[in-house]
Amino acid sequence: MNYKLQITNYQASVRLSLVIALLSSGTSTAVAGDWPMFRGNPQGTGVAQDPLPEKLSVRWKAELREPIVSTAAIVDGVVYVGADDEALHAFDLKDGHELWKYAAKGSVRAAPTVIGEVVYFGDQEGILYAVNTRSHEAKWTFATEGELVSSVNHKDARLVFGSYDGKVYCLSLDDGKLLWEFKTAGRVHGTPAIAGDSVVAAGCDEYLHVLALEDGSSRARVSMGSVSGASAAIQGDKAFAGTYGNAVLGIDWKKGEVEWRFEDADRQFPFLSSAAVTEQAAFVGGRDKRLRALDVRTGKEQWAFATDGRVDSSPVVVGSRVFVGSTDGNLYAVDAASGREVWRYETGAPISASPAVAGGNLVIGNEDGILFCFGESAAGSR
Predict the structure, then answer these.
(1) Average pLDDT, the chain
(2) What are phi and psi of 189, to 5 degrees?
(3) Most exposed: 179, 243, 310, 366, by fewest CB within 10 Å?
(4) H or E element: which one contains 8?
(5) What's the pLDDT tens digit per position in 261-312?
(6) CB neighbours (10 Å) of residue 126?
């Protein structure tokens, strides 16, 4: 009996079942193996569906000459990423050659979101662009009154995102028409999560807002005790978000209650990193140069991994490893269970962008404007 063939067929069956489940749940229009948006999915969990090789090497580099703060999206073998050169760039995932770019009005620090044949992204001038990935022309644009660092989330032909003008917006996916807007008392830096028919947004007004996707009406407002620049990550009834008040919160967003609060009494530093969340742990970086694993039920620290720089990069879980960048210039991989370092790569400049994982590759940029693709074997660099 060919056991290897049986295992391969079983793995293919599991993968197909996962794709069907994602599509039927309305979680994303992209299938498993793509990374279509910031944090990988509408719930913002930062957990990759595609594995990475045990040993990683640089497959290619692309030099943009201006800082890359934007986190990449990867769909259908194309890498989309913004930069401070006021453009969105599209690269071939295989070899890193640039396919095309679209000139914006300001720096592109928001992560792009790819839905079908359109890529959506905002710039520092407050303009949201919907650009066709085939014609490379804008389908429509929408102007806000503040910088856009928040990325676009989506469900049921609706786009949601935040702006530095203090609003959460909901637009029609097809034509960019405003469907509703919700005014907060501060800037909206993070990307709103979508859970069921609710939008969950952590704001700079010190509140976690739970809004109805249908009309933007407020369902709950939870005091976080401080400004938040992170994107909330959703796992079931729980939302996880860090604050500038040196804390990470576990919130029951349906009840509108803070369940636990983590704060290191000896290291009082903000958390700007967005958490990656599994059923066991919330992994989050801090400006105290630490990556931590917190118990999702209690907020108790499971481990802390020290780097030599701030960890504003948002971690990504890939199997048993957690990948994250640091302003010390390193991309790290640590064991998810123990926090032990298993790999690192020195990029030569601070990293504040977050990893994107798809097709057996990890893509991330640094503040020297170099975009790195890591995978199984080197394919040259650009």
Answers:
(1) 92
(2) -90, -45
(3) 179
(4) helix 3-25
(5) 999 989 999 999 999 999 999 999 999 999 999 999 999 999 999 999 999 9
(6) 18
- φ and ψ at residue 11, rounded to 5 degrees: -60, -40
Please give the helix or strand (H or E) that residue 345 lies within, else none. Answer: strand 341-346
H helix and E strand count, the chain: 1, 32
Phi, psi of 58 (to 5 degrees): -75, 120
d(CA 276, CA 278): 7
Structure tokens at 322: 């957690």
Q: In order of start, what are the domains of the chain with their CATH numbers?
A: 36-375 (2.130.10.10)
Sheet bearing 321-325, strands edge to edge? 316-318, 321-325, 330-335, 341-346
Residue 79 CB neighbour total at 10 angstroms = 26
In angstroms, what is the C-alpha Rg of the chain? 19
Q: Evaluate whether 204 touches 228 at the Cβ level (below 8 Å).
A: yes
- Give φ, ψ of 267 to 5 degrees: -135, 90
What's the pTM? 0.91
Q: Of 26, 77, 21, nearest to 373 (Cα)?
A: 77
